[in-house]
Amino acid sequence: MDNLQIEIQIADNSLQDNKYWKRLVSMFAVVGLKFEIHCWNEEIEETKTALKFGKEKSTDWEFGTIIEGVIDEKFIEMIHHTVKPPDTAIYNKMTPFFSIFFENGFSSEHYGTEFHISSTPIDDADFTVLLKKLREHAIINEF
């Protein structure tokens, strides 16, 4: 997967759970890598949750907060137990966090409905299988 860029946009608004989101994020969440979580100012509970895993980053983003930290086992456990938000009026949210970025070039954006990948996952074979399954629910572009 060298130099491959992948964009995934979940197009199926009927997905009732976030199992694909959890599997995809877990494939790129590596202990020791830095992460950022972006939350809008009004997302008080989401920000509090993110602050359990990192600290607020100094930024000029006036509309939100960025929490930065290092991925550890507790962070990965949180990913595995993230519940799909019931608020799906604007997005069929997969996660309560607006954006999550990992330093390895992976991001989950727009509440887990859009992904950008520019790195190799932990298990390339499982990733290939997951991409095949995701094609039923998502638009996938590879560059």
Describe this protein's structure:
The structure is a single chain. By secondary structure, the protein is of the alpha+beta class. The chain has one domain. The chain is 25% helix and 27% strand. It contains four helices and eight strands. It has helices at 19-28, 44-50, 73-80, 124-134, and strands spanning 6-10, 34-40, 55-56, 64-70, 99-102, 106-109, 114-117, 138-142. Strands 3-4-2-5-6-7-1-8 form an eight-stranded antiparallel beta sheet, covered by helices on one side. A hairpin with a 3-residue loop joins strand 5 (99-102) and strand 6 (106-109). The chain is globular, with a radius of gyration of 15 Å. The model has no long low-confidence stretch (mean pLDDT 94).
Indicate the topology.
Elements lengths: L5 E5 L8 H10 L5 E7 L3 H7 L4 E2 L7 E7 L2 H8 L18 E4 L3 E4 L4 E4 L6 H11 L3 E5 L1
Antiparallel strand pairs: 1-7, 1-8, 2-4, 2-5, 3-4, 5-6, 6-7
Distance between the termini: 11 Å
Would you tell me the overall average pLDDT? 94
Report the sheet with the most strands, covering strand number, pairing sense and barrel closure: 8 strands, antiparallel
Are there runs of 5+ residues with pLDDT below 50, and where?
none
Radius of gyration: 15 Å
H/E element sequence: EHEHEEHEEEHE
Summed up, the helix count is 4
Helical/strand content category? alpha+beta
Helix content: 25-40%
Strand content: 25-35%
Give me the side-by-side strand order of the main sheet: 3-4-2-5-6-7-1-8
Give the total of beta strands. 8
For the record, the count of structural domains works out to 1
Shape: globular
